[in-house]
Design goal:
The chain has about 180 residues and is of the alpha+beta class. The chain has one domain (about 40-170): 3-Layer(aba) Sandwich (Glutaredoxin), CATH 3.40.30. About 25% of the residues lie in helices and about 25% in strands. The chain has helices spanning about 50-60, 60-65, 80-90, 105-110, 160-170; strands spanning about 15-20, 25-30, 35-40, 70-75, 95-100, 115, 130, 135-140, 145-150. A 7-stranded mixed beta sheet has the order 2-1-5-4-3-8-9. A two-stranded antiparallel sheet has the order 6-7. The longest helix has 14 residues, at about 160-170. The chain starts with 16 loop residues before the first strand and ends in a 12-residue tail after the last helix.
């Protein structure tokens, strides 16, 4: 498996090709043509109740993101069956929800991996390995603008805060920060 390396703002993000629930429609990040950004949300999977809350919040804000010229996709390392269950059971009719995001691809995106620990308190089995959460705001040119990568499911960035920040970013043409890779 690939080594864990952070993605750098202003640099191209790795290729992202997945299938969308429930019908397997292909999604390719390179084919997206947002006015400003694509928000890529990586969630832990069907087993995660915090992800359920987060994605329902995202679903409720899809129009606000679209009005700001931001496309949205959420994905996990779950397989097709679990993604289909997530979409149906969590009530996410409009959110583009992907599956087929492999563990090696998760590492290329700088995500942390965890091992499953059996059934959660909600009675859903964790997969043997899965990616921890991440958010990536990708410019229309395929370069990273913003990312938040986590080792735990807790304390996720607020979509309301991200929406507010997008207004400032666009109005001020604020550059991506954190682009320095080496000292010297």
């Amino acid at each position: 498996m690939t080594d864990l390396k952070p993605l750098l703002p202003r640099a191209p993000v790795p290729r992202l090709e997945i299938r969308l629930a429930p019908d397997g429609t292909p999604f390719r990040l390179a084919d997206e043509r947002p006015q400003h950004f694509t928000l890529v949300v990586v969630y832990r999977g069907l087993h995660c109740p915090i992800c359920k809350t987060q994605l329902r919040d995202l679903e409720s804000k899809l129009d606000a993101f679209a009005q700001k010229g931001v496309g949205v996709v959420a994905l996990s390392t779950d397989d097709e069956e679990r993604a289909n269950r997530t979409k149906a059971e969590w009530g996410l009719p409009r959110l583009r929800l992907g599956h087929g995001f492999g563990l090696a691809a998760a590492r290329e995106w700088g995500l942390f991996l965890s091992t499953g620990r059996g059934k959660t308190s909600h009675g859903v089995e964790e997969p043997p390995l899965f990616a921890e959460p991440g958010l990536f705001l990708v410019r229309a040119d395929g370069t990273l603008y913003f990312s938040s990568v986590q080792t735990m499911p807790f304390a996720r960035p607020s979509f309301a805060d991200i929406l507010q920040a997008i207004d400032i970013v666009i109005a001020r043409d604020y550059p991506a920060r954190g682009e320095v890779a080496t000292l010297g």
